[in-house]
Amino acid sequence: MINIRKLENELWEAADALRAGSKLTSNQYCMPVLGLIFLRYAYSRFKLVEAEILKDRPMRNGRVMPVEASDFKAKSALYLPVEAQYDYLLNLPEDIKGATLTSKDGQVMTSLGEVVNNAMALIEEQSTQLTGILPKNYTDFSDELLAEILRIFNNSALDEVGGDIIGRIYEYFLNKFAKNIASDDGVFFTPKSLVKMIVNVLEPIHGTLFDPACGSGGMFIQSGDFVNSHGMNANSAMTFYGQEKVEYNAQLCLMNMAVHGLTGVIKSGDEGNSFYNDAHQLDGRCDYIMANPPFNVDKVKSESTQAAGRLPFGMPGINKNKEIGNANYLWISYFYSYLNDTGRAGFVMASSATDSQGKDKDIRESLVKTGAVDVMVSVGNNFFYTKSLPCSLWFFDKAKPESIKDKVLFIDARNYYTVVDRTLNEWTEWQLKNLNAIVWLYRGEVEKYTELLNEYRQVLGDDKTFAEHIETLSEQVKAIEVEGKQAVADAGRGKGKKVQQEYDEKVEAIKATLTIAQEAQWLYEKFGDGEYLDVPGLCKVAYITNEAKGDNEGVSIEDKGWSLTPGAYVGVAPVEDDGVNFEERMAEIHEELLVLQREANILMETISKNMKEMGL
């Protein structure tokens, strides 16, 4: 089995090393490199679809009829002319000048860069969605550099693990470049785990999906995957619309969608500025809204915004310059306004917006009273690639069941995550499922919760409880670590490192299963076989108004001044007794502090003495 993470890292390191050796910046390098991965992925899909077409291909005069562009269109795949196929580019002679190659316009090509530019132009002819989108600046690369990058992205391991994996490699590069070149003006890429959480809660199956701040298209990709995983064709079931002010990001979005076999209509530039334009005329017509808009945008022209409409709860605060000082509640109003009568919305928002005051509070009160606010989730720091700020996930549902019509589910997930590295956290697939399970139970969808428990049991095997699995696997980890330590000691000279690596891999494999067992136990100990309960420090269902609450216990959202901050409702988880005597431990700490102070005083005296001797 190929280690995909290892392959991703190797490809990135090789490509980035070439960039470092050239005179190109990350900005100059990003789009052309993504274009080549796009080309490699398109070729992989082309070969897979071609094989399917040829299986049932009719014969004529004893020969199989050649495949045509129309055959690929029928299968929602991209047709590639010979000169745009990856193998053709790889096998070109080194002397392009001597090969007498001509472009689609009949011009003689004298460099590999021109040949790749021509390949991109040929692909654009096959897809109206890609017209004018693909990079065509490959003459900025030397032929040697370009040939080496083509070779790197033709790693045979990609074919060993199947064509679809190249889409994942593409996504990995997209995220890596996002870390390097993301803007500082609030426009940055949405982490995959946040996108997945939004898609999982909204459950898009069919209809119109609009992202008014679509960036590189992550919401569309995950929604397409969700629809396809339910046995439907995303392009047939969904209609994708996007607006994106930054044209560079819109290009990435269209390429990203094409890589994943999706079609959509994206408006960019001034037309794509959602503050002043409803470019697709979608107000009140959307089944789903998903977005990660730029946070805390200021200096938005109030008169232009007023004229553009989509403000069912009125305007946010306006300053003396006739500008909106913080656009968060413009976005929130838009997301509500775009929904049809049964629509759902899920979006990322600055944490401050759940409790902001002034006109924001008035808008929030009106919004909450509609009953459309469904779920609120607090997310901790370090989920974004380039920012450490916390955020919130907001969910609207204009067709909530009567049982929860006058309620809102609050989830505080700030302490629930997996550390990727020092600056990045994420939710794993199992953690996403667990958070989703809380929403299912709140909605009364117990069967989905039961299916998840069964999935855990199937992965873990046998009839042990989740707690028993944790105990058994923990013991196995300890035993293998002890065995490995002895094996390394017994290994001959020069063999210890290899033996250690073998045991490390065994331990990691068991730890991976142990983590699954721990996530299963995390969920089961809170909700058992499927009954929603408020869990202190994690989740709480609150009534919207005091009238709706009636004689029930707890505070309403009205009681909390229309705050939508989860922490204001869920409280704090009880602290487990760790068996430490508080008074004894405080005495120990006090003694340690005194010792450290004495050592610090001695060091200061020594430093002062040395400085005097140096005449300072």
UniProtKB/TrEMBL annotation:
Ranges in coiled-coil conformation: none
GO process annotations (BP): methylation
Keyword GTP-binding belongs to the record: no
Keywords: Methyltransferase, Restriction system, S-adenosyl-L-methionine, Transferase
Location of the DNA methylase adenine-specific domain: 163-438
GO MF term list: methyltransferase activity
Reactions catalysed according to its record: a 2'-deoxyadenosine in DNA + S-adenosyl-L-methionine = an N(6)-methyl-2'-deoxyadenosine in DNA + S-adenosyl-L-homocysteine + H(+)
EC number: 2.1.1.72
Pfam families: HsdM_N (PF12161), N6_Mtase (PF02384)
All copies of domain N6 adenine-specific DNA methyltransferase N-terminal, residue ranges: 7-149
Family as reported in the entry's similarity comment: Belongs to the N(4)/N(6)-methyltransferase family.
Protein name, entry field: site-specific DNA-methyltransferase (adenine-specific)
